[in-house]
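Q: Can someone sanity-check these two? First one:
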Amino acid sequence: MNTPYTTHLICAPQLNGAATIGALLATPGESVVADTPLVLLHVDGQAQEVCAPEAGLVGSFVVERDEAVSSGDLLLTMEIEEKAMQLFPLLDEEPGFAPACTLPEAKPAAVDRQNGTLTVAPEAASLAARLALDLAEVPPGPDGVVDEDAVTDHVRDILIRWRKLKRLVVD
């Protein structure tokens, strides 16, 4: 059985002002343990390390040395081994959600076609990565942002449709 990996986005932490990339401390493809320093940032004359959140493989860097970055900017990707877990306990009865046919049709995610960007909250990106979801398929919330609630609602919708399909096939 192959070990499942999920791509995680490693971003700059909350910073008090602009920072520059001082050094890339790992190489793409390198296997690292949790808390291994990956990037050295220089913030107002102080050095700050960005470390691996968990053990995994360093993916690709999207920044270079001496490049300016801000809070939340994407620095690199990592492939992190997923731990076996049950996302939702088995339920004896159908959850009390509105029937799918009465829900408004889902809109595609908020994508700015001119520059190809999708507005996603960092927590939603992390949750979607853990669940191996394509964020472009997740309808945004009322504010046009894909947040944790939007990801949860999308997963719930998938599970309800799957359960209905399973009942059709089994019955």
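And here is the second, same format, sequence then tokens:
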Amino acid sequence: MGIKGRNHYWASRERQGGWTLVEVSLTLALAGVMTALALPAFAQLGDRLDRELFLGALAADIRMAQREAVMREEETVVRLDRDGKSYTVLRGEQVIRRKEVPTRYRLESNYPGGRLVIRRTGQMRGGTLRLYEGKQMVGKAVIQVASGRVRVEVNP
């Protein structure tokens, strides 16, 4: 058999292709380590996106209330409920919109009585609506003085 048999062994092995058990095991172990490292980052990304979407919707509702006040020439109010679990947009006594805060969050503001009043001219007092998860602030919607523009900031 000698040299000729040895060449035949390597030639047939090259044609077969495939993976050895060691190669497959190392590949799976590497994929597992990479997944374990990346998973917390993906979870945080989802939480941050959830906060951004909620605060974006809140900012859109404040802008909508501002347009309603100007169009109808009537005062409009964005009112936070006492427990911070929802807010309501009102024109007079009529409810225009009511939105729940995501379950693990709570909304607080520096507006008296939790009431952001938008005048018929569209002007409103500047202030901040803060979003909390437990005792930690995780984001806020800042309403600029005079212009009433809303800026959303989300903590990482």
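A (reply): Looked at the second one. Helices lie at 2-16, 21-72. The beta strands are 76-80, 86-91, 94-100, 106-109, 115-118, 127-133, 136-143, 150-154.
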